[in-house]
Predict the structure of (Mediterranean fruit fly) hypothetical protein.
Amino acid sequence: MNGGIARGERTKTHNVRFYNLTPRSIQSIACNKLWHKLAISRSDGSIEIWDTQHASYLEKVIPKSPGNSVEGMVWAGERLFSVGLTGELVEWDLLLLKPRRKQFATGNAIWCVDVNATGTDLAIGTEEGYINIFDIDNDQMQYKNLFDKQEGRVLCCKFDRSGEFLVTGSVSAIRIWDVKSGHALHKMTVSRDKRKDVIVWSLQVLSDFTIIAGDSRGQVSVWDGKMAAHLESHQVLKADVLTVAVNEEENMLMCSGIEPIIRIYAKTKIKREEIEYHCWVKFLQRSVHDNDVKALACEGDRIFSGGMDGYLGISSASKRSSTISKYGPFLKNPCVAVSTKNRLLLLRYTNYFEIWRLGSTDGRPQLVALADDKKGNETKHKSNGPERGLLALNAAPEKLLEFKSKKEEPIVCATISPDGQWLCYSTQKNIRLFRFVSAVTGKNDTQLVRIRGLPEQFKAATHVTFSSDSKRLFLVHPDTRQIHVFSIVNNGSTDLDFIETIETAKHIRDVISLFAVSECGTYIVAAGADRTIAVWSIYQGKHFRHHLNMPRYSAITTAIAIHAKEARLVAAFSDGKIIEYDLEEMCFTCSESEYFVENAETHCVTNILLDTRNTNNIILHNDAYLYVLEKVAATNGDLGHHDEHDDDALVLPKKKSGKKLKRIISDSKVSSLRLKFKKSYEHLISLCWLSSDELVAVGVNPITLIEQLPDVFKQKKFGTA
């Protein structure tokens, strides 16, 4: 436990290090460059949708379904398709986060999928060597054609720019097909390696019909698709090349595989005597991952990569930048909940959750080595910053409960009430409410009683939140996006009463990604994936009604929080902007777009806490940093003005078009922010208040993730194995 002093106020931080997640490897990546979306499929069958317009943000998660596997994905406009070993082609509903259409293909398991440039035809390659063509034009998905059966499985496929030809890769061969007739026009044999068949794992087809293939020899071969002739080969890796990608200009080639290095080749013009020709020359290499790399995608100068270690890596394809960003295989927040009264901590995993009782301290410092103590005292006297040190625990953290969902369904959300008496969790199909009686310290007598006979409105949810007094429960329905409000009644028998339903469809037209209830219970705030932030308030002390929609911003909202003592909302956005908005006066009281930490351009703020002891303090964190910002008076009134012609203009909903929410432009009321404190972490997942002077910081040690991975590709270094 850490202790610190800030302006005479000590804040203790519980550093939780027992949140041990299992790494889920990345199977495939599909990049939508028009809408700045990235789809990632994981080994458990789940699909993640990331917003990549600014700093990458996990926007939506499609949970795994029983027996589902995703081996390949592709975008067709705003539509997302996936294929897997079940032999089904699936189109996903990105609003309801469930399958929209399914269709079985000829040939059992499906290994690859691609869409032509016009988005009208979709091709899939199967285990038994069949290639199926589907018509997806005009928002449909109909079987269209079946190609001649080939020998062996079809592992990769790509349309050419015209859509008239399809190139496929399999064992020891690359074939070019005529899409209309379904016949193979050319078969290009890949030479055997030490009497072993060579597997073509990945393909790319350029606009001039140049074919680039990565194979099991560790080579990238280049072919002329018009003449079906081999042009050049490069030994890029010491083991299998599992994935290749090209940039939009088609002058950069990226490849990676079992050897976890991303090699970048540049297309170069070479002149010899009077002959000019192009060839691929080694340009750069990036070391992003610790294990096999299975998928690559490119958008602009950014290279998206993923593989066995489960990390989403983002690196640069140019020499101007060497920045590498990594996003761990973590669950979408909130995955941590705290009971402030009983000092309980809930940790959510994929299909189960744990309840822990946190340790306590009386403020005694932890004993350290004498040399370290002297160094610490010297540093303390020299520094004008807050005093920090380790505190000894009176009682160690204790695990009270581990609860698995029925049939191991993925848990979408889970929470514990502030008084520690109620537990609620939801999967995609079911929701459960329990009465929780925690064990006395040292005794194993934890009790969990399921509540039955609940109202019919108590259905599966995407967000579950208790009020601060534990008397109300709020659910967000996944299909209708309605907010259901329940009252917890204790009149001799435990019961749950339905109060009201709040309609959100008019105000938020996409998935509700963030949800918060004020400590006083007066305000409800919901942020959607469509960049909207909607607020509801108590009307006449009885029911909630729509209060306002925040001015829409161009970047997606990544974190929200409401002041406990003031009707003010603080929000953070993926481009680094942070704002504070007065919900009563309907005006901005603080606005700042400055980057306060080194990685703000790559990692967005994932959580916001507000200090009840000092309302000028705003505590934020992302994956790598915790930092405290302080509101300060602005030096001029520019922050309150609004330019009608600004591209990033904040626009109101249509029903209020022509009107602007009033802005306070007085220097005394519009504030900016300054950096007050910063602390680095390794994978800081969550930060919660346990009391007015205690914080709980939940982190994941990257070493625990690496230890669960299979052995990495072995190679000699400096003459030793």
